[in-house]
Amino acid sequence: MDAQKNSVNLKLKLYSHWQSSCSWRVRFALNLKGLSYDYKAVNLAKGEQFSPEFEKLNPLHFVPVLVDDDIVVSDSYAILLYLEERYPKSTLLPDDPQLRALNLQVASIISSSIQPLHMLSILKYIEEKVGPEERQSWAIRHIENGLHALEKLLKNYACRYATGDKVYLSDVFLAPQIAVAATRFNVDMSKFPTLSRIHESYEALPEFQASAPQRQPDAV
User: Fold this and answer.
1) pLDDT tens digit sequence for 31-68
2) Longest CA span, the chain
3) Most buried pick, 77, 93, 122, 195, via CB within 10 A?
4) How many CB atoms lie within 10 A of CB 196?
5) 7 pLDDT exceeds 70?
6) Is the pTM of this model over 0.85?
7) How far apart are CA 4 and CA 9, in angstroms?
8) Nearest Cα residue to 167 out of 106, 97, 78
């Protein structure tokens, strides 16, 4: 059984960039599920995401992309839901309907209302149209708006992690987002005591440590 599972795991390929928080989510989830994978670095600075080969994997030219044998999945949210169905061990969604919905809500807030608003392509566009000062203030404003919502949403549910004492989908999305907010955009996380506390728990997890940007083979 284990040998069969290992043979399945080896066919997984993750097209990733070390600084991509969306890729970071997937790396974290793969580690939590104990799934080995082949890391395929995509150099965004050199424009490798626009190559004909990568366009076949994702016409939007974004990382991450997961390849599982003959199945290709792009977009981190879709990838994580696929992994949950295909590899249910170490589940990322709780059985309780309310907590399950809460995890999906947190993931959706981050993937649709926070991260897209500080994507590099968006920030470059803002800088070109308005200037470098507005680029940073734009990012911080939208990150903080989202974090304030998450702080209120989770304050009555959070324990060691976002929705209890187990790591779930909400944590997979939160951990990289909080790290990026604090380190890349210098967001004052003291405004968000619940999020700051649970992030300390993430930092102690070997699976999170191994997924960190600086630990990736393409890190510079």
Assistant:
1) 999 999 999 999 999 999 999 999 999 999 999 999 99
2) 58
3) 195
4) 16
5) no
6) yes
7) 9
8) 106
The rounded Cα 83 to chain-centroid distance in angstroms is 14
3-state secondary structure of 39: strand
Taking the C-alpha atoms of residue 216 and residue 192, their distance in angstroms, rounded to an integer, is: 28
Question: Quick count: other Cβ atoms within 10 Å of Cβ 191?
Answer: 12
DSSP state of 164: B
Residues 6+ away with beta carbon under 8 Å from 144: 187, 191
Cβ atoms of 199 and 177 within 8 Å: the answer is no
Provide Rg for the chain, Cα atoms.
Answer: 17
The residue type at 54: F
The secondary structure of the chain in percent helix, strand, coil, rounded to multiples of 5, reads 60, 10, 30
